[in-house]
Amino acid sequence: MSTDTEERPATGSRPPSTIRYALILGGLTAFGPLSIDMYLPALPTMSGDLRASSSTLQLTLTAFFIGLALGQLVIGPLSDAFGRRRPLLIGITIYAAASVLCALSPSAELLIAARGLQAIGASAGMVVARATVRDLFGGTAMTRFFSMLMLVTGLAPILAPIAGGQVLNWTSWRGVFLVLTGFGAVLLLVVTIALPEPLPPERRTPARLGAATRTYLALLRDRAFLGYALASGLVLAGLFAYIAGSSFVLQDVYGLSPQQYSLVFGANGIGIVLLGQVNGRIVGRFPERVLLRTGLLVGAGSALAMVLGLSLGLGLVALLPPLFLIISSIGLTMPNITSLALADHPQTAGSASALLGVLQFVLGGVASPLVGLGGTSSALPMATIMASFGLLALLVYALLTRRRAAEALPATA
Q1: CB of 32 within 8 A of CB of 68?
Q2: d(C-alpha 19, C-alpha 63), whole Å
Q3: Cα separation, 150 vs 314, whole angstroms
Q4: Quick one: angle between helices 59-82 and 85-104, nearest 10?
Q5: Dihedral over alpha carbons 255, 257, 259, 265 (to 10 degrees)
Q6: In the chain, what's the furthest Cα-to-Cα distance?
Q7: What is the Cα–Cα distance from 269 to 276, expressed in whole angstroms?
Q8: Can you tell me the distance from the alpha carbon of 84 to that of 128, in angstroms, rounded to the nearest whole number?
Q9: What is the structure's pLDDT at 297?
Q10: Three-state SS for 100?
Q11: Burial category of 402 from C-beta neighbours within 10 Å (exposed 0-12, middle 13-18, buried 19 and up)
Q12: How much is the pLDDT for 157?
């Protein structure tokens, strides 16, 4: 990782308002959590309304994850070639239009297709937000800023299901997608007015298919980048398994109302925010890799405890506390792993951000249907899948750090 503690923006001066950047970039990264989480309380109702099974409706999540992956692959190189703003504005426009299509969908099949299109638009916000942070910062300052973003993006999973539950009090699930349309329209206006271009022309790369392909291949050959990207994808796969299964588990298995489910979901989001802010305060005193390893251990250990408790029939007592620790640990894991993954790629930050997101959401797309195949009559399938991904993330990170230590031996001998 780069040793600089802070990089200045491409314009040669510090950002005029770190808080402003955090709010705007946090809003862009919130596209994914809002679009995933806000309609979750309505999934059981949608099953009857659209005459579709729970596993079919969980494909709306899978389609969204696949759309995010494909969209990022395209938008990453485009943002390196044409700057961050132009692809971003086009993406937000696509998102708003697709959200309207979601609200009007008469069948589960059309809703799945509209969700894929919605995700392609949302992917622009997520790619550009990460790349912009890399444009503006480096070193510990970058990790601190990613931790600050957790304060903003962590509010999305807190507020989204709560807002979704409240929207369902006076309208149907279609109203949830109209609210998302409004969010896209507001963010389009804010970006147009308040987000300057962070990537000057002299730092851009040509928009050629061959060049983009070579960049992606070089990133895939970078063992450090690939290791961090795979570990982050496995962590988020566990999160997506929770997202896909939690509404059915907590409402159908344990009898929580949509509002109670929203409160549980929001409490877990608070944990992400708190640990994200703790990470930002201590990252200068502890290396990113130490904090990352701690987060991975907490997540995997808590998931194993959850599986054991549910196997013993302990019910919500075995489910809710470990869930809180698993989800909270993401606030410690993701800022450090994102910073470490992007640190050595300042000239191709858009492509690196895109590939990082692709691996995350491809693995997330795999996790969602696995939960559906496990059934919705017990919490154990969801817990087992979450534990499996947590252990795999820890294993990938352990292999990565062991290889890095071995490669460093000759230099220190």
Answers
A1: yes
A2: 33
A3: 32
A4: 160
A5: 20
A6: 69
A7: 11
A8: 6
A9: 96
A10: helix
A11: exposed
A12: 61
283 and 292 Cβ atoms separated by less than 8 Å: no
On whether the CB atoms of residues 80 and 204 are closer than 8 A, the answer is yes
- Burial level of 259, CB count in 10 A (0-12/13-18/19+)? middle
Collapsed DSSP state (helix, strand, coil) of residue 256: coil
Q: What is the pLDDT of residue 14?
A: 45
Q: CA 256 → CA 55, 58, 230, distances in Å?
A: 20, 19, 34
d(CA 28, CA 38): 16
What pTM value is reported for the model?
Answer: 0.77
The whole-number pLDDT of residue 373 equals 76
Give 61: exposed, middle or buried? Use CB within 10 Å, 0-12, 13-18, 19+. Answer: buried
Q: Are 224 and 404 in contact (CB under 8 A)?
A: yes
Structure tokens at 202: 């002299």
Confidence of residue 405 (pLDDT cuts 50, 70, 90): low
Residue type, 161: P
**Counting every residue, how long is the chain?**
413
Q: Is the pLDDT of residue 115 over 90?
A: yes
Say which amino acid occupies 144: R
What tokens were used for 195? 């987000």
Q: Specify whether the CB–CB gap between 10 and 203 falls below 8 A.
A: yes
Q: Which two tokens stand for residue 59?
A: 């494909």
Find the range with the poorest average confidence among 5-9, 223-227, 345-349: 5-9
Rounded CA gap, 163 and 170, in Å?
11
Which residues, in sequence order, are CB contacts of 87 under 8 Å at separation 6+?
A: 75, 78, 79, 124, 128
Nearest-angstrom CA–CA distance, 368 and 239: 10
Closest CA to 401 of 237, 284, 280, 290: 290
Of the chain, the percentage scoring pLDDT greater than 90 comes to: 41
Nearest partner of 32 among 159, 157, 150, judged by Cα: 157
The token pair at 140 is 């510990």
Q: Which residue has the higher pLDDT, 52 or 302?
A: 302
Burial environment of residue 368 by CB neighbours within 10 A (0 to 12, 13 to 18, 19 or more): buried
Q: Which of 403, 35, 411 is nearest to 223 (CA)?
A: 403
- Residues 248, 249, 255: CA angle, nearest 5 degrees: 90
Whether 327 and 268 have beta carbons less than 8 Å apart is answered as yes
Which token pair is 135? 């444009």
